[in-house]
Specification:
Length: 452
């Protein structure tokens, strides 16, 4: 089993090469690793290294309660002076920005400006660096006074968007936008006045379909497994006839779902259901498929339920809360919805359980090797409900001709100090104007820039 890195020793080695301080560049310490499948693919952070591939399937899942459910949250510590993320051979990583207030989702404007949601500070920040620049030369607050902003989107797509949309926890607003704006030109215009709020999952991501006709908003569940959701109003047969497949009710109404609106906020509807917490919402740049990076439920043991990254088909139901990963029945809801058996869509890519999969993007640049183009990158914020830690990394979602293979590969690791401490928790991933990959982490408020 791999031992935790001793950052003092690493620092001493790097110092011998003259590589010290915040501008450290990774020497691609980790080389490509093996492929893990089946039960071996679960594992924990000790095995993580760039290039290691995992492939989990529905057939690999243990029975509920095979291990105890434990609370094992991380202790976030200041970044050790010599600590830098690890990346595959041939890549390098540099500190792009620090001193930020919990940077989360990032979106890159057509002119290359990087918009960052500083969610707990209730603001959006904009960073500007010249193409190929490793540091921002402009750092401004674009808008403040928001309500836990998370998702950001430019509309319409293309080189000259007219609006920048922001998904607050309880609403969607937009600002008039001209490329190059560093400050909002006015007060936010309300597009969707009210999103489901209160309790549970509060992040809201936003994306527009490639034809610019629909606005999609991800809304997580209010609870872990709908503990308080009783019989629906009017009875189950009536509810099922009048609502989308697998739609929830009560405090979970319009939650654990991807919602759809016109770009002006009209004609609300439900795009897909049963997705416990679609934190990262993205559109594939070639296939135009809608994708979600999803947190699944807790409380069923170390290796249940896998998080996932998946294409989301309109009208599909992904199981929550009655089923998971196909027809696996949640024992806490045994026998409640036999009508849904056989109608659950299985996600495309299963991620190690409890990894907390957050931000998602697809590589559309030209600076990485050609085989990366069109592949996904997902940020794994890290586990709390697992005896041995998982997550705390960025993974590459492998696609072939736009179709997911089911496998994913560790791409950025090195945020864990030891079994109890971490210095980084990745949240956002974005492709910079020059093709670099940007990764935010909200534990120490940094953004990292990865180039090839």
């Amino acid at each position: 089993m791999r031992q935790p890195l001793d950052w003092r020793k690493v620092g001493a080695v790097l110092a011998g090469f003259g590589l010290t301080g915040l501008g450290l560049i990774s020497l691609a310490i980790a080389q490509s690793g093996p492929s893990l499948a089946g039960r071996e693919a679960f594992g924990d952070w000790h095995a993580d290294k760039p290039g290691l591939t995992r492939h989990l399937t529905a057939a690999d899942l243990p029975k509920p309660g095979a291990t105890s459910s434990v609370a094992n949250g991380p202790r976030s510590v200041p970044r050790p002076v010599s600590a830098i993320p690890q990346v595959p051979a041939g890549f390098k990583v540099e500190l792009f920005a620090d001193g930020l207030s919990g940077p989360r989702i990032m979106r890159v404007a057509p002119n290359g400006d990087v918009f960052v949601a500083e969610t707990h500070a209730d603001r959006i920040r904009v960073l500007r660096a010249p193409d190929g620049g490793s540091k921002p030369t402009v750092n401004e607050v674009y808008a403040s006074g928001l309500n836990r902003p998370f998702g950001i989107a430019f509309f319409p797509s293309g080189d000259n968007p007219r609006w920048v949309y922001v998904a607050n926890t309880d609403s969607v607003v937009r600002f008039p936008y001209r490329p190059g704006d560093l400050k909002a030109s006015g007060k936010p215009e309300i597009v969707v006045a009210e999103l489901p709020r209160g309790g549970g999952h509060w992040t809201r991501d936003i994306a527009f379909t490639r034809d610019n006709r629909r606005m999609l908003i991800s809304v997580g569940s209010a609870s872990n497994d709908a503990e308080g959701m009783r019989a629906p109003p009017g009875g189950l047969p009536s509810w099922s006839d009048q609502h989308p497949l697998g739609a929830s009710w009560g405090d979970e109404t319009d939650r654990a779902a991807v919602l759809a609106f016109d770009p002006d906020g009209k004609n609300p509807g439900i795009f897909a259901t049963g997705i416990r917490n679609c934190v990262g919402l993205a559109i594939h740049p070639v296939t135009a498929d809608v994708w979600c990076s999803t947190n699944e439920r807790d409380g069923l043991g170390d290796d249940l339920v896998p998080d996932y990254v998946t294409r989301v088909r309109e009208g599909s139901f992904y199981g929550w809360p009655w089923f998971y990963i196909g027809d696996h029945q949640d024992p806490r809801h045994a026998g409640e919805r036999p009508d849904l058996k056989g109608r659950v869509t299985i996600p495309d890519v299963l991620i190690q359980p409890h990894s907390a999969s957050l931000g998602l993007t697809f590589y559309n640049g030209n600076a990485f090797p050609a085989e990366y183009r069109g592949d996904g990158f997902a940020a794994e914020h890290g586990s709390w409900n697992r005896s041995r830690r998982t997550g705390y990394k960025v993974v590459r979602i492998r696609l072939k001709d736009g179709i997911p293979t089911g496998a994913y590969e560790d791409f950025v690791t090195g945020f864990v100090v030891n079994d109890s401490e971490v210095w980084g928790r990745p949240v956002g991933v974005a492709v910079a104007h020059d093709g670099a990959l940007l990764v935010s982490e909200d534990s120490n408020g940094t953004i990292w820039r990865i180039t090839h």
